[in-house]
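Q: How do we represent a protein-ligand complex in a form that can be generated token by token?
A: Start from the inputs.
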Amino acid sequence: MKNSVKFLLAVVIAATGWTRIEADTTSEAGSKTSGEVSLEGVVTARSIMGETKGFFFLQDDAGGVGVVMEGDQKDLPRAGYQIKLTAEATDKSYLNYKAMELVNTNANMPRLTVVRDASDAGAVKDALGKYAVVPGTKFEGSKFKGGEMIKIATSNAKFDAVTSMPLDGYSVPQYDFNFFGVIASNDIVGGDGSGNILVTTRVVPVSASETRKFATQQTCFTCHLVDKKLVGPAYLWVAQKYKNDPDAISKMVEQIENGGMGKWGPIPMIGFKGRLNNDQMTELADWIHEMRWELILNE
Ligand code: HEC
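Then emit the structure tokens for the protein with heme C bound:
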């Protein structure tokens, strides 16, 4: 495993754009000690690390680089943005920021989460710069604490997860997830220097696939898609609407059973009363409700 190179300690700088960035020095940009460097790629992860510090992972053709920025949070590029970053290399392990150009917002790309391999074992090891899947991951503990690390585990490895949005107070989901992402070195999130991180590009509940098949059989997809409007609303929008509603399941079961209109527009949905029993409707409502985690964790 290629260990990554050290970064200088953060220096707090007035909030007027960037003044300095720290890039993973295993990359081409980091190996230069003078002259101009240019990095172009897609931001596949983003995390605010404090008032004047943020992290993003810029995936480029060479695999990608982790970038820690100092400056104004509002200048931290969003996940999905395709950006071109120009900087002046220094003989230290940081770059002096010159300019950032937004090439494309890639608005439809999912938002991200950063995961650190605490055990240094399992799927994340020895795979720097590669795309990886960590299947069957479970959150440990009962509640999220906003912005803090939380333990997650698979059958053979343990990880620390950092989410880019405060999740304070949310109960952790009880089911398994598949994490998809790119492996980067750990130093870039200011960790203890050991292990790697999985910069996730998507977090998907495992249970989704079976119920999805069932929903397809029940013709739900003739009017609904997961992320776009069709005749009815995208399921992700429904999940968004009921994200914090304790009665979400019963309200959705009501809609599935009896149909309804006016909540999303003038087109009615016909109910499935007599065609689906209560357990089946609850399963479908649960499945839609679960999608909120894709929103919450990837926000
Ligand atoms: C013939 C088209 C059609 C089919 C088939 C259909 N829906 Fe809908 N669905 C709609 C429309 C239209 C709306 C928006 C209704 C409104 O504005 O109140 C909707 C809304 C919903 C909502 C949101 C309810 C809310 O409270 O906001 C849920 C949940 C839902 N559908 C689930 C399902 C499920 C599950 C299935 C399959 C069992 C299904 N739908 C099949 C057209 C359909």
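The chain has a mean pLDDT of 72. Residues 215, 218-220, 222-224, 231-233, 238, 241, 251-252, 255-256, 260-265, 267, 269-270, 272, 284, 288 surround heme C (CB under 6 Å).
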